[in-house]
Amino acid sequence: MRVKSAQFKLAATTPASFPTDSRPQIAFLGRSNVGKSSLLNSLLGVKGLARTSSTPGRTQSINFFLINEQFYFVDLPGYGFAKTSKENRRVWGQLIERYLAETTALVLSILLVDARHGPTPLDLQMKSWLQHYGLPFMVVSTKADKLSTGERSRTLRQVGSILEVDQVISYSAVTREGTGPLWDVIRSRAGLTG
Ligand SMILES: Nc1nc2c(ncn2[C@@H]2O[C@H](COP(=O)(O)OP(=O)(O)O)[C@@H](O)[C@H]2O)c(=O)[nH]1
Ligand SMILES: [Mg+2]
């Protein structure tokens, strides 16, 4: 995929500010620190577009990035940060659920799971939401560079069996492994050419 432009559009903290145009949206979901911002940046080949941080649980807005003036990448706030307050979690849940339930332009959700930890109960809950709303999704196992080749294939099988999906893409923001397969899925779901 040739990324000609990638621009931060807006940070939505209420559904009222979700974009209303019909460009396809691809959403990225996962627990805090799973490597979501790093994946977004490396996929787009732009350093520092999505903020990466080692302080998990900070992003509480849904961030929209417009790519090639053609489609959106949507960075959903990470979940499962233990120190987040109950109130924060409630607001988070409502915002994400409204987004998933109401965004008709949402063509693909990418569920990120940390290769070293495997799916957590919250990942399973996220998957149930996606299925509940009938939304197509794809599972990506992140930080592949931290595992040996043998561990990697074992992890992929394990993640696939726990989340009950046939395909899991192995990804590393460090080596950029998985970029091609992930773009292929995105391109096909969003009906993109080029
Ligand atoms: N080794 C390695 N570290 C990664 C990778 N992706 C993210 N990280 C690190 O994991 C931490 C969290 O990454 P970040 O992208 O901010 O996660 P987010 O909270 O899901 O957005 C940071 O310290 C990153 O440098 C990866 O593919 N390989
Ligand atoms: Mg992030």
Structure description:
The protein has 194 residues and is of the alpha/beta class. It has a single domain (6-190), classed as Rossmann fold, CATH 3.40.50. The protein has helices at residues 36-44, 86-102, 121-132, 149-163, 179-190, and strands at residues 6-12, 25-30, 62-67, 71-75, 106-114, 137-142, 168-170. It has a 7-stranded mixed sheet, sandwiched between helices. Helix 4 links the parallel strand 6 (137-142) and strand 7. The radius of gyration is 16 Å and the shape is globular. Bound molecules: guanosine-5'-diphosphate and magnesium ion. Magnesium ion is lined by residues 36-37, 59.
Question: Which tags fit this structure?
Answer:
single chain; about 190 residues; alpha/beta; Rossmann fold; 7-stranded mixed β-sheet; 5 helices; 7 strands; about 35% helix; about 20% strand; globular; binds guanosine-5'-diphosphate; binds magnesium ion
